[in-house]
Amino acid sequence: MIRAAAFNPFPRLLNDFFALFYPEICQICRAEKATAAASYICERCRGGIRYIEAPFCDCCGLPFQGDITVSFECANCRDQKLHFRAARAAVELSGPLQEVVHRYKYNHATWFEPFLAGLLITHAKPVLAQSRWDYIVPIPLHWLKLRERSFNQSLRLARQLGKATGVPVHNRLLKRTQPTSTQTRLTRAERTQNVKRAFAYRGRTKLAGERIILVDDVLTTGATASACAKLLMQNGASVVDVWTVARGILK
Hints:
alpha/beta, two-stranded antiparallel sheet, 9 helices, four-stranded parallel β-sheet, single chain
């Protein structure tokens, strides 16, 4: 089982700086000790994170609870047309990880970013090294939400992955044209409709067969990533795969 504990992008000076302003306590359980170098997440809370391992859906990476030794496609992928080739995630969006992602995105808890980036890099880097990739493309954020949050978490995670893999990050190929409502409480059909016309291709020229990795923080039904992948494929990409930190599981 792959773990991200060895990945630590925090320089010593930055760790010392954070220690001046934040107590060394876990920001999830508020009970155990945790340092800035550990993104203020203690070992006990890390132990509650569920890592995604095979077997999982060949298309969207949805984990399957059971013994399967052959490749398979889940019902979610069979019932809809997804425009990316494959999507993978490091962990399930459950337990402590769900709170980490939520607070990182909506409460500007950027001290969690090294941990989230570490999960993504540790799991994605060895897989990406098996093929040639031309660009990493983050899922774009509408300017209204960007102003509200002050940062695009997908772009920041994409830059971390790009630095670790050497694959250039291209954040000007896609544009979010509509400030869609959050996908969190929507059904699969509602998610697809919500992002149907939410994106546009903004590259100055068409692509010429480039192989692209889309990066986001979370994938659930795949509607958002599929809408972006469709535009990239329509404009000349030859392959679009998706990597996210977490995989949301619809109940």
